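From the shared-data thread, chain only:
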Amino acid sequence: MEPNIKLYATSTGKNLGQAIAAQLGLPLLLTQAEKFSDGELFVRFNESIRGQVVIIVGKIHTPYENFFELLMTIDAAKRSSAKEVIMVIPYLAHSRQERRDGQRTAISSRMIADMLQLMGADRIITLDLHTNAIEGFYKIPLDPLSSLKLFLNHIQQSNTPDLCLCSPDFGGIKRIKQYKKNLTADMVVINKERLKPNAVAAMEIIGDAKNKNVIIVDDLVDTAGTLCKAADLLMEHGALSVKAYCTHGVLSGTALDNLTNSKIEKLLISDTAIEHVQHPKIEIVSCAGVLATALEHIINNKSLSQL
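Structure, as tokens:
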């Protein structure tokens, strides 16, 4: 690894940063983040980064001070004459709001893009964008990695017979087609109508899941309400079992209760958002390996297409 590269983590990215550092063979350096008595943040680098390629691992899901700390860290790096600032943001929050949903609404994913670029980020590595259209908001390289390899090995090692891949909406069909290329499985899709965020009015299954072990593949699970309703509906239509693989496990609100009361057998998530959760139905698969490999390819000028 080149000597002019330094790997840092914000306060939210420390654990993931340590796992990435171990795989890259780099020491993990931490920024100094403190608060004034009124809650105002203070961020600084404790060593010179002049002329260095600075990699910063940070998570920006709520509370919003996580995002503001990351913005301050980028600004501090640029003002300290860093040669290049590469951001590792495993879960790019606000990706569900990539267009105006009716009148008098914001496009918050564009706001996130503008702020990260305005502060001086030179490149961003993330995992499973909610929609590929978000890439067009960035004038800098944005590398949206896939969780395919992250979860595919786990599915293959389970040796589950009569597999059926399920997309929770039409937008996810492309995602499950990538899995189908590597698995012998049928496909079904859930057609749902939303009243408002985190609330589904109705849903129906397109396809046959009877006598199948169904695997739902999605990029995000928040309150898990929709996911659990989909799992229960699949079981009502004759599915033998239902598991879910969701990249970003936000798990807010009543998510854990919803999972407890659902017929879903297991939920597998990565550590892009939360890193620890005590629940018998939840298993966490670390994304550190995928992110570390991407960074190694970037540093050595290798292609990211296979990732």
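The chain has a mean pLDDT of 93.
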